[in-house]
User: Fold this.
Amino acid sequence: MAMGELTAMIMGIHHMIRNNEILILTQMLSPSFPVGSFAYSHGMESAINEGLIVDVKDLEEWLRCLLTQGSGWTDAALLNIAYNAKKSDVEYINTYARAFASSNERIKETDLQGGAFCDAVNSIWDLKLKKLCYPVALARTAFALKLSVELTTVMFSNAFVANMCNVAMRLVPLGQTDGQRVQAILKSVVLELALEVKNVTIDDLFSNTFMSDIMAMRHETQYSRIFRT
Assistant:
């Protein structure tokens, strides 16, 4: 076999593997995957109810802050930490994931979605995951299935943005085009986030989005609400 043919074959195999990873992650992070992501607003329902998010600009700024300074960043970091961890350290990392959930509803959000995700992947891919918080569960699944951690982080964070935009489209309300525009703008932030958290450790974890945390706490006692959190 000529060198050019061998190179082309290797590249073809590489592309097939990469495309297979994309298809698996697209399935796992689809709104139809049985984790119930559509039921959670991450405290945004209260933020919208109190007039903190009233238009596209507000939504973009809110989500940008979560991805660079808040729970969006932390979950992506936890995903990378759990992916690279020894199996014996996963439970310890999971306690950190729960500790960084700033309210009762945030804990429920990560626990319930994570538990549902574990049930689904155990059934579909015959894994043996115990109940874990959502980003940790995804990390260990990606590790077990030999998926790229960087690609997993990108698609996980992008799915989070898409879900939050869907919340805003229903409650602000925003048009579908506006929601898609915000997602398009934030794609560069998602890509930068995936690079930033590649080598983080537990000691690097932080969260500075206190208003988002407060809104999640207020949602627990909000009189009229559509979303679980």
Notes: The longest helix spans residues 3-28.
